[in-house]
Amino acid sequence: MTPVLDRSALEASPLADLHLLANEIGVDGFRRLRKADLIDAIVAKQSGDESAAVAGADDDAPAAPKRTRARRSRRKTTDEDGGDAPTAEDETAAAEEAAAAAGAEVDDEPESGRRRRGGRRSRREEDAAEDRVVEGVVELQGNGSGFLRLAPGENSDEDVYISGAQVKRCELVTGDRVAGPVRAPRRSERFPSLIRVDTINGKPADEVAEGTRFDDLPATFPTERLEFGGDDPTVTAVEWLAPIGKGSRVAVCGGALAGKSDLLRRLAGALSGRDGIELSIVLAGVRPEELGEWGEGIQPSAAVALGGSPDAQGQAVEQVIEQGRRVAARGGDAVVIVDSLDQVPQPVARRALAAARNIADGGSLTVIAATSAPLGGETTVVTLDATLTALRRFPALDLATSGTMRPELLVGEAGAQKIAEARAEALATTSV
Prior knowledge:
- It contains 16 helices and 16 strands.
- By secondary structure, it is of the alpha/beta class.
- The chain is elongated, with a radius of gyration of 28 Å.
């Protein structure tokens, strides 16, 4: 099974990834090729026409190297994927391969160098060991990289590191089941590293990566209501009088001290651990005290405190929303709770809310966000009454300004009629 190998993807990949791929598919002398020639060789190898690539490599092939002693540097660098970049020892191995191909000979490493290496395996030995295939569940980290958990729910030294480049290229999300070959840790690395992604959720990686763009997927009004349960009166009122469905765009509105953050925490607690739902929390501009309150329950996926810049808050929101989009595009049901959108740049806030949708015959992305006033385009608006909250009169729901579009799709015609009657009664009471 081979990964996605279109030329644009190869050109965007770091040289270290290209070397791993070339070694896997058997490109001869790949270490001495420039990046452009290496890409040509990989494409030619896949198409079965290696003559052009071989000719280009021969034109650039160096003369037989003289008998020299390789210089080594103590400096250690890091490649774009977060792993070790090629060092002087890697260059020595490349020189040995070039010398062998040209019929030349390279002096052995000095005895003192062998002693310092302490019996470390050579790059060739590591390459020879790169045939172990594992399967596990992806868990993304905040920096864009991730781990393949071999025993989901448990962390161990056997878990496999996934580079940020692989996560982005294959559009991996937390919860994806991935299989592929791994290599052993090198030097000071603690974990094995994934060489490439062969399958995602049982499907070839190239088929998944070439799927339809999220924004092009057909959307329909939500038809499946999210059930929260519990005995909290405000949550119960939301569930039945302003129902939220899978794929809803929800604005939880109200003035200062109306209880928006508190309601979001209660909704998150009701959904936490629910089978079939990938729940994510993003905190943008919340009070420092609320950061601690959220941490006592569900760990946020991203958080920027009150003093953070609007741009930093916007980036945090977009990062989590993008993960939710990927889950929905794969056929899963994602719920992203945002507290709040008030200090996020307006275009980012609108894009975040607009991302929510129920995909026809597919997954869904539900966005529930706190905001002082509706942004427009919501399918559900939940308005909290600050006066009722201050008087501790719950449910603190303002029925006159709360509601759901097409509620009959979520609660049936009879349920929609009861919602209409409750709103009419609330409006009559307000006008008195």
